[in-house]
Amino acid sequence: MKRKAIFLLILSAIFAGCAFTQPGRPACLSGRQVVYQSAPLVRFSGGSYAGTLSFRELKTYGNFGIGTVNGLDGEMIALDNRFYQIRSDGKVYLIEDETLTPFATVTRFLPQKQKVLNVRTDYAGLAGILDSILADKEKVYAIKITGKFNALKLRSVPAQVKPFPRLEEVIKKQEVFEYKDMPGVLVGFRFPENMDGVAFAGYHFHFISQDRNAGGHLLDCRIEHVFVEIEEISQLVLNCNSSA
Description:
- The chain has two domains: 20-108, CATH 3.30.1330.80; 113-232, CATH 3.30.1330.80.
- With 244 residues, it is mainly beta.
- It is 10% helix and 45% strand.
């Protein structure tokens, strides 16, 4: 597969420009506080599920993040330099380097803020607490939440075949998994409302259990004691070229 050209999208003053040091690769990707996204959300959610980027290449852009696998085959989570796939059977699989992704958001996670939360609440309450911690709601944040979750409601979706339906139709056939008292990690991002369509506006988390046997896209949770780590992002690198 030929290396794809990367289009740099500059979105308001929070994102700084980048210079290219070699064909197809911006210099800023080697720096800190950069998020790389393999495709715009508006194109992906419209049914562009054919993989365009290998996980071998994706790993050069980040080791922490979320996304999916070729054909929208379940949920993807990247943590501790490993990339995992949670299929619609709820099971977790290591992703091989040759596998392709149509949509992924990754960074090299270097948190600037850490906080222990000792509070009983659900996902909506957790989002409210996170909002109170974040310094500027117009910026992008990478977030990691570790702990024992009192309850979890997760989902994954089955692999799709052409002609691909829109994402909203796929989600109607999602598989939902519920767990109690499960230790693990939430990996995700918060994008501001003015970036809706470029990425998922608001919070978007994927979960993986401590034993790496369960996971999925987070629909709801209940927490009591978790450890939160946050990185404020200064640059977004968006790949707008889906051609192989």
